[in-house]
Design goal:
By secondary structure, the protein is mainly beta. It has one domain: Jelly Rolls (Sandwich), CATH 2.60.120.10. 6% of the residues lie in helices and 41% in strands. It has two helices and 13 strands. A six-stranded antiparallel β-sheet has the order 1-2-10-7-12-5, with no helix packed on it. The chain has a five-stranded antiparallel β-sheet with strand order 9-8-11-6-13, with no helix packed on it. A hairpin with a 2-residue loop joins strand 3 and strand 4. The radius of gyration is 16 Å and the shape is globular. The termini are far apart.
Length: 179
């Protein structure tokens, strides 16, 4: 398992070891020991799985406010996504910056998103499924987000007119004073 820290401190792209042969493949998608050895010490408490029927579905940008903030470990089970994270950590040298990553069922890449980041993704193929672990339970009164097309963040999404939930369409703009 290879851990590559990105320009956003604490955000990792993870390449698991994949063993393929004529029968298919085997992959160890999580090892608490390997994560600990990479300096990532978290205890995941919940697994979530989403399926998006169409290409162009955009989910996010979501986060939970302290004290219920969540770290996440994401991977694509089927299809492909353009995955985006935004650093919302006050005092971070990369506060307000975003990064995007293509995660697919073929590249097996995973993303570890620490607390203090907003997260979202756009599906690149119909029938895309994403699985993610979180280290804090979903707490509705703590949930928040940032609108996908925020002019300050200026995220370069691969779609101009995404398919959004009603809730995600009403998310607020990025407010540097709010975090």
């Amino acid at each position: 398992m290879e851990f590559k820290e990105t320009e956003l401190c604490g955000l990792y792209v993870i390449k698991p070891d994949v063993f393929e042969d004529h029968r298919g493949f085997f992959v160890e998608s999580y090892s608490q020991l390997k994560f600990k050895n990479a300096g990532i010490e978290t205890v995941f408490v919940q697994d979530n799985h989403s399926r998006s029927v169409e290409s162009g579905v955009l989910r996010g940008l979501h986060f939970q406010k302290p004290p219920y903030a969540q770290s996440k470990l994401l991977r694509v089970i089927r299809g492909a996504v353009y995955d985006v994270v935004v650093d919302l950590r006050k005092g971070s040298p990369t506060f307000g910056q975003w990064r995007g990553f293509e995660l697919t069922e073929k590249n097996f890449l995973m993303l570890y998103v620490p607390k203090g980041f907003a997260h979202g993704f756009c599906t690149l193929q119909p029938g895309t499924e994403v699985q993610y672990k979180v280290d804090a339970f979903y707490t509705p009164e703590s949930e928040s987000g940032v609108i996908w097309n925020d002019p300050y963040l200026n995220i370069n999404w691969p779609v101009k007119e995404p398919i959004l939930s009603k809730k995600d369409a009403l998310l607020p703009v990025f407010d540097p004073e709010a975090y």
